[in-house]
UniProtKB/TrEMBL annotation:
<feature type="active site">
    <location>
        <position position="166"/>
    </location>
</feature>
<dbReference type="InterPro" id="IPR036821">
    <property type="entry name" value="Peptide_deformylase_sf"/>
</dbReference>
<protein>
    <recommendedName>
        <fullName>Peptide deformylase</fullName>
        <ecNumber>3.5.1.88</ecNumber>
    </recommendedName>
</protein>
<feature type="binding site">
    <location>
        <position position="169"/>
    </location>
    <ligand>
        <name>Fe cation</name>
    </ligand>
</feature>
<comment type="similarity">
    <text>Belongs to the polypeptide deformylase family.</text>
</comment>
<dbReference type="GO" id="GO:0046872">
    <property type="term" value="F:metal ion binding"/>
</dbReference>
<feature type="binding site">
    <location>
        <position position="122"/>
    </location>
    <ligand>
        <name>Fe cation</name>
    </ligand>
</feature>
<dbReference type="GO" id="GO:0042586">
    <property type="term" value="F:peptide deformylase activity"/>
</dbReference>
<keyword id="KW-0648">Protein biosynthesis</keyword>
<keyword id="KW-0479">Metal-binding</keyword>
<keyword id="KW-0378">Hydrolase</keyword>
<comment type="function">
    <text>Removes the formyl group from the N-terminal Met of newly synthesized proteins. Requires at least a dipeptide for an efficient rate of reaction. N-terminal L-methionine is a prerequisite for activity but the enzyme has broad specificity at other positions.</text>
</comment>
<dbReference type="Pfam" id="PF01327">
    <property type="entry name" value="Pep_deformylase"/>
</dbReference>
<keyword id="KW-0408">Iron</keyword>
<dbReference type="InterPro" id="IPR023635">
    <property type="entry name" value="Peptide_deformylase"/>
</dbReference>
<feature type="binding site">
    <location>
        <position position="165"/>
    </location>
    <ligand>
        <name>Fe cation</name>
    </ligand>
</feature>
<dbReference type="GO" id="GO:0006412">
    <property type="term" value="P:translation"/>
</dbReference>
Length: 202
């Protein structure tokens, strides 16, 4: 389900009907780099995507429009094969923060890894998936923000997990591709890896 970003004007409200589900080839296709400087239609698409995340986390709005709660959304999840995604979640201090990334690239990462004990979820996956998804504990990302300014940021913990999940989407990778096929709860050998919540309590 490939779409033109002209559909996603600033006033357009994304609903679950717009979310591409697993099985669609769009989710298995590597997204194309976004043309810079950032075009108005791409900025508006990012604004729509961010508003969806905010709506999905608002109890009244999400109930009214039957939205699943999300903390990250990549462009190919709404049918746009463009290398951009948004995040709306709490930072280490508990404050809500929003990030829009265009042409993001992980330029360095930790050796240590973490995982969510309850596995990961995805707006494009309507079924429960069990198993550990190994992620780097921290990542440094380089890319552009919603205004087209170059940005370099470091993320750790839960935010790092979300960043890696969304960049995987842009590369046609689903989170469950990283779960051990033979034993979903087997962790990588020879590397320091722990549950996210163990890491938080240290």
């Amino acid at each position: 389900m490939l779409l033109s970003s002209t559909k996603f004007k600033a006033e357009y409200m994304i609903t679950m009907d717009d979310i591409v589900r697993e099985g669609d080839s769009v989710l298995r296709t590597v997204a194309e780099p976004v043309q810079m400087p950032l075009q108005a239609e791409d900025q508006e698409a990012l604004q729509c995507m961010m508003q969806f995340l905010k709506n999905s986390q608002d109890p009244e709005v999400s109930a009214k429009f039957k939205l699943r709660s999300g903390v990250g959304l990549s462009a190919n999840q709404i049918g746009l094969l463009k290398r951009m995604f948004v995040m709306y979640l709490r930072d280490d201090k508990g404050n809500m923060v929003e990030h829009a990334w265009v042409n993001p690239k992980v330029i360095s990462h930790s050796v240590a890894m973490i995982y969510l004990p309850e596995s990961e979820g995805c707006l494009s996956v309507d079924r429960p998936v069990h198993g550990f998804v190994p992620r780097y504990e921290s990542v440094k990302v380089k890319g552009y923000n919603m205004t087209g300014k170059e940005v370099v940021m470091k993320f750790k913990g839960y935010q790092a997990i979300v960043v890696q999940h969304e960049i995987d989407h842009l590369d046609g990778i689903m989170f469950y591709d990283r779960i051990n096929e033979e034993n979903p709860f087997k962790l990588p050998q020879g590397v320091e890896i722990r549950s996210l919540y163990e890491q938080k309590s240290r």
